[in-house]
Structures are given as C-alpha cells and as structure tokens.
Design a protein that fits this description.
Two copies of one chain form a homodimer. Chain A contains 13 helices and 13 strands. Chain A is α/β, with parallel strands linked by helices. In chain A, the strands form three sheets. In chain A, strands 2-9-8-7-6-3-4-5 form an eight-stranded mixed beta sheet, sandwiched between helices. In chain A, helix 5 links the parallel strand 3 and strand 4. The first copy, chain A, is globular. Chain A starts with 8 loop residues before the first helix and ends with a helix. In chain A, about 55% of the residues are buried. Chains A and B meet through helix 4, helix 5, helix 9 and helix 10 of A and helix 4, helix 5, helix 9 and helix 10 of B.
C-alpha cells in the first residue's frame, strides 16, 4: 500500500502536529534508553551465576590438568558437547577463545596471509577480491571484510534466505568472489532461517573460485523464543554430499548462552580444513583457556540440558519481543510506512521504514533519548541504499523501558515519514 | 680449554666404555622424562587454586558487570595492576586474551596486513623484509616470523644482551629490517638480562626503517629465583626519551604467575600505538574475558602481593635449577666440552656442548628416555649453525626425576663429545 493511503493532506498535517506534541513531551523526560546492541539483560546473566562453583578439581574427564599448558584444539568433553549441539563430528571442531567473531576475523586474516587449505595463493595476492553480503546483515561482519580491503556485494535477503539466483549467477562467473557471510538461523537482524533449498543450493552451487568460502555464523542456533522452532539443514553435511566438503566454516559461541565476553567459541569445518587451521593456529598460540572450557562443559552438561537452559532465556526475553511487536502493531500497522518481522528466535527485530527515512528516524529517536543501532549499520560500510532498515535489539532494557522506547520509536517512524511526504 | 685436554687417547677410549655401560644401564630402566617445555610443576599450580573462590559479585571496581559485553581494552583495575608491575601508564596498556604469544602474533599480522601506526605501507607490500633474532632465543618467536615469510638474521647474545654493534650497523643501513625479537629479562634460554647500555642503545639507535619495531617479550620480568635480582631499564621510557616513542611493544602475561593457558596477557606501548591497535582490534573482537581479568586482579591484588606470590614459585623451582647446575658441575666441569649459565631467574638453563654435538646429545638422551627441547630449536628454522645449544627446562619434572634426567644428559653430552673426538 501507499504511505498514509486514504488520508487527506489536512489530516496528515494535523496528525503531524499531534505527534510533534507527544514527541516534545517525551523529550522533556530526559530519557536515556539504549537499544543499540544485542546484549542479554541482567536476569539472563543470573541464569549462569553458578557456573564458577565447580572449578575444582581442575581435571578434565581424561585427566588433563587444565591449569597447565597443553591441548591446542580444546577439551574432548567440550568438543563432544558442541558436536552434539551443532551436529558435527568431534574431529571437525576447534574450540578457541572467547569470541566467535575473533575466530571469523582470524579465518579471513589467515586466508589473506597464507591462503586456505589446499590453495597456495593467499587472498592478499589476488587483485580485487569480493565477498557476498546478504543484507540487512551484521555490521561487524562487514567491518572485517572492509578492513581487509575486500569489496562487498549486497545480496538481498528473502524470506527463505539470501537471493540464491543472484548468488549462483555471480559465483559461477567471477573468480574474485572468494566467499560470503551467512547467519543461517534467526538471522541478524531479519530473524529469517535459511530454507533447506537455500542450504542445499549453497552447498552444491558451482563456484569459479575454487577456494570460495562460506562463513556460516551460527550465532543463534540455540536461541529459540517458542516451542515451535525453526530448524536448518546441516550445511557441513550438505557440502560433503555435494562434493564440496571444504567450502564452509561454521562458527558459534556461548556468548548468549552463558556470559558474553567470557564464553567459549568454536569453529567447525571438514576435518581437512580443521587440521590445516590447527597447523596455522599452533604458530599463533600454545592454546586457549581450558579452565573456562572445563567450567562451561560442567555447567552446560549436554545438549538436552542446554535446551532447558535456553528455555529459561526465552522465558525472560520472549515478552520483550512480543511487546515490541504489539506496540509497533498498535502504532504503525495499516499506514503503509513500516514493516517488521516477528522472529521465532535470535536477538533482533528488523524494522523497515519508509524509503529514505531510516536515518531521520534514528536521529529523532536519539534526540528523544532512545539510542538505536545506527541506520545503515546493517549494510556494508554503513550505507543502506534505500535508507530504510533499522535494527531493534529488545533484550537488554527492562520491559518498562523497552515499551517506552518503542512508543518513542513509533512516533519517530511516523514523524519522519510525514516530514518526507508533506 | 680444549676438549678433554690432558687426557690420553687410551684414557678417553676407556672413559667412553665406562659411559656406554652407564648409559645402557639407564636405558634398561625404560624411563620417560620430559624436559622439553617450560611448564610450571603441579606444586606451583597449587599456589593459585584459590583464585576462583571470589568470582561473585561479578562487578569491577567501577561497577561494570563483567558478565556482559563491553570494554575492549581491559578492566581499569587490571590495567592499574599491570602498570604497577611493568612501569607503564594505564593508557599505554591493553589487556587481551590468555596468551601474550597470540598478541605478538597479532601485532605482526596487523603490521603485515594493515601497517603500523602512522605507516600506510603494510609489511606485506615490502619485498624481502627481515627481522633480527638474538640467538639462542625462543623457538615460537621464530616460527611466527617464518610463517609470515620474514627472513631472520641471527644476532649473537652476549652476557649483557644481543650484540649491539652488529644490530646498530644492520638497522642503520637496511630499510627492509623491520624489527627484532627480544626477551630482555632472564632471557629464554640464556637467562641473561639486558644491561642498561643495551636498552638505551636499542631505544636510541638510528634505523633506516621508520617503522622498525622491537617486540619486547617481558615474559620473565617477575620470575626471580633469588633475593638478589636482575633489573632492567624501562624500554618504553627510554624510547620516549630518545624521541622514538612508537618503536617498542612490550608483552607479558600471568601464564607462569597463575595458570598457563588460563592467565591474562597484556601489550604495552606508546599511547599512540595502543590507540591505533585498539582501533584495529575493535574490528576483530567485542572484547576479551573480563571475568578472568576480575578474578585475576582480585587474586593478585597489587605489585607487592605479586612479589610475595612469586617468592613462593621461586621456593619451589630454585632447588631444581640448583640441582641441574650441581649435577652438570659434578659431571662436566673442567672437561672443556660444555658450558652453561646459572640464571637468577626465568625458566631455562642454556647448555652449550661441543660444537657439532647438540643433535647427537639430544638423540642419545631421547633413546635413554629423556625428552629435551629439540637441538636447534633456539635458532631460526631450527638450525643451530654450530649445532651446540641445548635448552634445559627444569621446572616441570619432580626433583628426583629431574636429577636422573640431568645425570643421563651429562652422560650423553660426554658420550657425544667422545664419539666426535675419537
């Protein structure tokens, strides 16, 4: 529908005045509400407070003293846990550090410096390399490719994942397209999960670059909001079946399961790829924090226990997601100026406003004390070609603050649209 | 003196037979003694067992909830602790991860990919770059430079540090020499600490490469064995005074203070350098493990407390260093076939055997069940041009095992020498 279809000009002018009045009232309250980052709230953090109660004895199940040097790729029991959770074999997994982002950065840095498994030519020696960036997407992904001077090609996100026809056409013909970013489950920020067809086509497609690499950021695989859950095919299995076993690296962490910044992260891929990475990583470090792996594994126990733990997270944040939806629905539906998703998991709600109005909406919100993720952040270099997408991160603020913030945001969405139209 | 000066050939033949007999006796015992790596022993690890007893509350001194995202460069109180211990300002320090080796790797990777602070030309775009490697040195340093294809120039270690005349001459004239490795205090493996004169000359020297970088691996700064201690000048201060504030990056960690692999590591440099690195690291990760910083800082408290803690380490490992010296002295002194240092700190004893005999000595030891660091490991690419140096790591084995291992090693040193001479 058209924006404000069926309203007369006079009605819109009067509506605008009404909104300006409400907006000014909010401004006077000197609010400071931050919804810019996908951080768990305090109640979620409390769920993990007991984790450090069972540190001693410091021995892993096979008797390794976790207080000393040794073991590059992670404790056995930690690999078993992640292999259960993510459906990979234990020899296809590497446990490393506290940050999956850092592991992704490192993969690209190693591809750039040394080349990937089986390929002698590092990406730094190839002119004009490119990455596919499904958008809206995750700003920190795009910052990494930008830092390495990799050109970024925007691929639209559909309801079942990235536009596969566009991807297949591009990668078949261009040897300099070396890889793509993907958040396959409850994607940041769209909440979309890739369909089986999309996963299979990514695994099977013909790529001109033999070292084409999919960075499969499975950040929200465990983060369901409801009993009715999305599920995705195992890309690692599909790549094996398609004869492209080395095409994909999967990443994940416990950042939003236990404690962000103090969790454990992993990388999974073909055994060949993991063996190659281990050789390179053995030059970089003697090993990662095994005590943290030990306490995590004791606390999380097994896949079933993790599922129960994640249900507690969901119980805390589900009302926040629903409040955002309810308020947006109440204030913005039927006006033709905004659309948003209603995700079944993940950490974000993606809001599309009237074209050309995202920046202004975020600016208006900021002036009224509501900090949102910058408009454009969900696109490479922070430039949304339609200036349309806004990422809402509802988990961190208390519910009452969140509701106020979304009331204000709704006003700003409509005000920005009216400013444009009138 | 000459090897076996004053002995007749017949005496040496008979001595050799005696040693072979003793060697064969040891072999029959099927020993398995590992002295290859500088690992703390179990008694040392016990000193830190209490560290996890005070995790809750998870708040840093300024009220930051360490369970959530936030803070790229480390907790304030952790920076204060390290700034006390290493004589730098808190804005000259970055706390990151569990491994100083990883931070050093990362510095070189960033110089290689993006260039250093103020220099637009990354090292990857310069042909034939080189690093100075004081030798004997640390194998893992050399592996990093080798991985990045950086040529390594061996610089001899004297009793007061690396040969400064050679270094000054080289760096003044060669723009492709981009940096050097240094372990300035109780060096690995020589145990030498750099003299004030050496530190000042490194800070002041004229370098053709404007981005010449000293990697100051201060791994053993806190690791004294005796009350009478070495001390070194602050290279960061000296570089400031000399007008070369951006020349040096210092590294260290608590790996051999608390728990190897589960400690915290830091990097220190000029504020400008640290600010630049922070910008790059902000692309790589959201932040490092703050809970680990919190418990470390609560456990270690302050510089005085760390000193007391390190005295407990010294009390455990000092008898091991002395046992090695005593046994080598008893078996090898006066024969002209071996020399070794008697360090006042650090983790290693450096043993020089007769030229051309190090590999054979290590091989003989191995066959008798004593695993040493590979001969050559203390030189780039594992090639000791004189095949002379052996690194002894006395801390890990129990004292009785260590004594047996050094008895065997002594036999092997002498046997290898006799094999060569006879």
């Amino acid at each position: 529908m058209q924006a404000f279809e069926g309203f007369t000009n006079a009605e819109l002018v009067s509506r605008k005045q009404e909104l300006v009045n409400r907006y000014e009232d909010y401004k006077k309250r000197n609010l400071k509400l931050d919804m810019s980052r996908g951080k768990p709230c305090t109640e979620q953090l409390e769920l993990t407070n007991d984790m450090y109660d069972n540190v001693s004895p410091f021995l892993s199940e096979d008797g390794t003293d976790c207080r000393n040097y040794g073991i590059l790729d992670g404790l056995k029991e930690t690999k078993v846990l992640f292999s259960e959770l993510f459906g990979v074999n234990t020899d296809e997994i590497f446990i490393g550090g506290n940050s999956s982002l850092n592991l992704m950065y490192d993969l690209i840095a190693k591809a750039y410096n040394h080349g990937l498994n089986g390929f002698e030519k590092p990406w730094s020696k190839v002119e004009g390399i490119k990455f596919l960036c499904p958008c809206p997407g995750y700003d920190r992904h795009f910052s990494i490719t930008e830092l390495f001077g990799i050109s970024m090609i925007i691929v639209p996100m559909n309801n079942d994942g990235p536009d596969m026809e566009m991807i297949e056409e591009l990668v078949k013909n261009d040897e300099t397209i070396k890889g793509m970013w993907a958040i396959p489950m409850y994607s940041n920020p769209t909440g979309i999960s890739f369909s089986d067809d999309v996963v299979r086509r990514l695994a099977r497609m013909e790529t001109k670059a033999k070292d084409f690499t999919i960075i499969w950021d499975n950040a929200y695989a465990l983060h369901h909001l409801y009993d009715e859950q999305d599920s995705i095919l195992s890309i690692i299995d599909e790549c094996k079946k398609a004869g492209n076993p080395d095409r994909v690296y999967m990443f994940g962490s416990t950042s939003k399961v236990t404690f962000p910044g103090s969790g454990i992260a992993f990388m999974a891929s073909s055994k060949n790829n993991i063996d190659y990475m281990k050789k390179l990583i053995s030059i970089q470090t003697i090993g990662f924090d095994k005590i943290n792996m030990l306490i995590h594994t004791r606390f999380l126990k097994n896949a079933d226990n993790v599922k129960e733990h994640m249900k507690k997270h969901a119980a805390i944040i589900r009302p926040k997601f629903e409040a955002v939806n309810d308020i947006l629905e109440k204030n913005l539906s039927g006006k033709g100026i905004a659309s948003w998703n209603k995700p079944k998991g993940g950490y974000f709600i993606s809001l599309d406003v009237l074209d050309g109005c995202a920046k202004r909406t975020v600016e208006l919100s900021k002036e009224a004390g509501v900090t949102l993720t910058s408009a454009g952040a969900t696109f490479p270099k922070g430039i949304d070609p339609n200036d349309r997408n806004i990422r809402i991160a509802p988990t961190y603020p208390p519910l009452s603050e969140l509701k106020t913030a979304i009331e204000i945001l709704s006003i700003c969405v409509e005000l920005a649209a009216l400013e444009k139209i009138l």
